[in-house]
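Tokens in:
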């Protein structure tokens, strides 16, 4: 009788949908806030505590992100096998163990291992990827706004401010124990996770898992559209990371004062909080391909404007757009992937997207630095970035026009 009642509500009740998006928001924020916001405020105390170089300390987060990307395909398969609830639950516990290790770490080697394995694996299991799948599953008809809300990095902005006070008054270990506590507080919310609403053919089991067939990895890797999405969106992701890595050096080269450069970085970081929400709304209203085209055009125009001005107000507006666009790529890719390959295949598509785009996200930011050193200035290098963004904008616009003429069907699972 209960299954029949659920089947009569194929989209889930409005309260259920909001609660699931709320759970996705909390999971994503604990994962990203602790890993990125927490790292930013703890990196200098880590260097001081263990006498490590800045390069060694920075390596911790790079390893974490690398493991996140490498693990994503396996996590996608795991979600398909055991469901979101237990995948995310295991991720929260594994990640909490990682922060507990940081709290008692006797050396920088242990810190690096903690970021590589427990924290990196945990981030893959309950962070932006599964949280986006959860939000998208419950708003499959139009997931743009839900994805934007789920990916709003509020904790990443708040944790550094809270962390500074905790580290100052109670020490670095207390800060890591606080993050362990955040993970523990998250567990009851994850217990309520369900993969998606029931439909006439599929109902959640006792663990909230809804079994569906997914497109095979072989079918995806043979699909030209998948590679086009990876190249275009992967490049835009890399440009967002490049902005964080090189904005200070770029504006300093143009004679901007250090205080103004720091303010521009703050504007860029703060804009990420609204970026995913704005792009999510755009995806819902215009469609993901057109939203990605606007995002790419915004990046190109912002960097072009930065090349031609040193006026702080204009540069701040450009930094705002660059930061917001960088944060909006992932929600837009989620929505586009569900549209192209089917909502039920989203875990596998995003898992493969993460690993296929690793060469771009890891290679382009340092390549920009190498090219800048080779030519002696940022101008020509940023020109290449602008050109790449323009190509991506055209590609996603063309994809939106093709999609309007012939809406893509879900690919077969076999």
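Residues out:
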């Amino acid at each position: 009788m209960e299954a029949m009642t659920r089947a009569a509500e194929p989209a889930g009740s409005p309260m259920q949908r909001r609660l699931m998006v709320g759970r996705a928001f909390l999971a994503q924020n604990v994962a990203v806030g602790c890993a990125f916001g927490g790292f930013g405020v703890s990196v200098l105390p880590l260097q001081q505590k263990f006498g490590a170089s800045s390069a060694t300390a920075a390596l911790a987060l790079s390893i974490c992100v690398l493991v996140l990307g490498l693990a994503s395909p396996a996590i996608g398969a795991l979600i398909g096998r055991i469901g979101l609830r237990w995948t995310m639950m295991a991720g929260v516990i594994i990640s909490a163990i990682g922060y507990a290790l940081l709290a008692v770490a006797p050396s920088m080697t242990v810190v690096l291992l903690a970021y590589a394995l427990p924290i990196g694996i945990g981030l893959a299991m309950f962070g932006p990827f599964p949280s986006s799948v959860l939000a998208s599953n419950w708003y499959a008809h139009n997931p743009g706004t839900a994805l934007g809300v789920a990916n709003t990095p509020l904790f990443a902005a708040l944790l550094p401010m809270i962390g500074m006070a905790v580290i100052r008054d109670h020490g670095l270990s207390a800060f890591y124990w606080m993050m362990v506590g955040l993970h523990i507080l998250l567990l009851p919310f994850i217990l309520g996770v369900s993969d998606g609403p029931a439909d006439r053919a599929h109902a959640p089991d006792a663990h909230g898992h809804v079994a569906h067939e997914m497109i095979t990895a072989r079918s995806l890797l043979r699909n030209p559209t998948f590679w086009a999405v990876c190249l275009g969106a992967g490049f835009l992701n890399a440009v967002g990371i490049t902005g964080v890595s090189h904005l200070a050096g770029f504006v300093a080269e143009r004679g901007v004062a250090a205080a103004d450069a720091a303010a521009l970085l703050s504007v860029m970081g703060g804009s990420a909080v609204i970026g995913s929400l704005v792009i999510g709304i755009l995806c819902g209203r215009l469609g993901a391909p057109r939203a990605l085209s606007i995002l790419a055009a915004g990046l190109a125009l912002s960097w072009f404007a930065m090349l031609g001005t040193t006026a702080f107000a204009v540069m701040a507006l450009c930094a705002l757009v660059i930061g917001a666009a960088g944060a909006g790529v992932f929600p837009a890719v989620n929505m586009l992937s569900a549209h192209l390959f089917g909502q039920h295949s989203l875990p596998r598509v995003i898992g493969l997207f993460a690993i296929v785009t690793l060469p771009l996200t890891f290679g382009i930011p340092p390549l920009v630095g190498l090219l800048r050193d080779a030519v002696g200035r940022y101008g020509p290098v940023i020109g290449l970035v602008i050109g790449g963004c323009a190509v991506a904008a055209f590609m996603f616009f063309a994809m939106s026009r093709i999609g309007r003429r012939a809406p893509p069907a879900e690919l077969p699972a076999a």
